[in-house]
Amino acid sequence: MKQLFARYLAILLIWCLALAARVQPSRGFDMFSSQEEVQAGQQASEQVSKQLPVLPDSSPVTQYVERLGTQLAAHAPGEKWPYSFHVVNQKEINAFALPGGPVYVNLGTIQAADNEAELAGVMAHEISHVVQRHGTRAASKQMMAQLPLSILGGLMGSGALSQMAQLGISFGVGSYFLKNSRQAESEADLLGTDIMYDTGFNPHAMADFFEKIEKEGGAGGPQFLSDHPNPGNRRQAVTKEVNTLPRKSSYRSDSAEFLRIKQTVGSMHPLTAQQIAAQQKQGTAVADAGGLASDVTPSRSSKTLNHSLFQIAYPDNWQAFGDQSSAVTIAPRSGVSQNAIAYGVMVNGYQPEGATNLDAATHQLIASLRQSNPALREIGHDEDIRVNGRPGKSVDMIGASPLEGQGGRAVSERDWLVTFQRSDGNLLYLVFISPDQDFGKLRPTFEEMLKSVHLK
Predict the structure, then answer these.
(1) What digits encode the pLDDT tens for the residues 87-121?
(2) Could you give the residue range(s) of every CATH 3.40.1000.10 domain in the chain?
(3) Residues ≥6 apart with Cβ < 8 Å to 43
(4) DSSP letter at 418?
(5) Chain segment 386-406, per-residue pLDDT in tens
(6) 209 sits in which H/E element
(7) What distances in angstroms separate CA 323 from CA 303, 309, 326, 349, 449, one per listed residue?
(8) Of the four, 122, 190, 246, 265, which is 20 to 30 A from 344 by CA?
């Protein structure tokens, strides 16, 4: 027994000495190396893309948020994390940051921002959570409480990620470690103030936005305040920090791009948290019931289809139906039945009437598609995108799926239409198809397929 106890103390001492370099007296204890921090964030980001309706990287809204985030991150101190910025198609006002760089902003947050500085304030605040490693600090604290038992049980892995997995800790959607403490909020406010100031924005706008959310409450308030509790005297703390900085006579005004994006998001109808939760629940139920055949789940390996008009990569457990000069359907075998597509991608050409531009030709195509399927309707408005340098149009639509739900109930289908105009004026278009409840799971695959498209 004495030998076992002595061995335990020796292991514990070595462990403490090995981790001492990761203790930051002003910021707390962090067991994660920089590499582990980035890896943990990337793993969590993959889960977020599967669980939440994240807008594609090609969306103009996402591209704007990426550019604004990059400007802010350039003024973030400390380690240069591989930041990335994403937009969640959710109505409630919220934003969150994952370890190592991924930052997510709800569409409702952009809709609620009265000016660009308010939106920049939210993003600077989230960047500050990344800089100060609040997520992994909270996880490290939890692991510290559990690890002595793990050492005794011989469960200690080779690094923090292994230990985290063994202890059932994650940074996924709704994770406890993404709900910040008041201390973390206070730290993010102060650093966010500096980042905004250095980027040219009025730091008081950050406090303005947070105070506005608290006063308005409503549908967006509770979740935001749960994840971002008021540390108290927020405005006073921001003002005190600004007073330590060189005085500025003016700050940045709203950019023309921000004003355009505000018009775009004003006509969009993001999903509520309840709708997202219902879709997640339905998706789980379908998967558990065997409704998603194994070949529907995309493999990580891909094949390339070389058509006479285009080239595209697709999951190698899906099949391409068609030939080098015809319309092509790429789908899992069980996703096609009786000439109807339930899961997959249709690629085809369209000849508009008269000489016309991409926008007009796309709307001609949509009218044509609706003639054959009157139930088909647009969600929001079409968006301008670029794929491999080529301009295109992106349109989300909803219709009726050929599949039937339990008791013969109708199943909604999500159709994502993307169009490109060829040099002869004709369109090449792709329709990414899935039951609405499963579209979020397949969207990352659809986006990768779109990124691989090259017109000839």
Answers:
(1) 999 988 889 999 899 999 999 999 999 999 999 99
(2) 295-455
(3) 171
(4) E
(5) 999 899 999 998 887 776 554
(6) helix 204-216
(7) 15, 11, 5, 14, 19
(8) 265
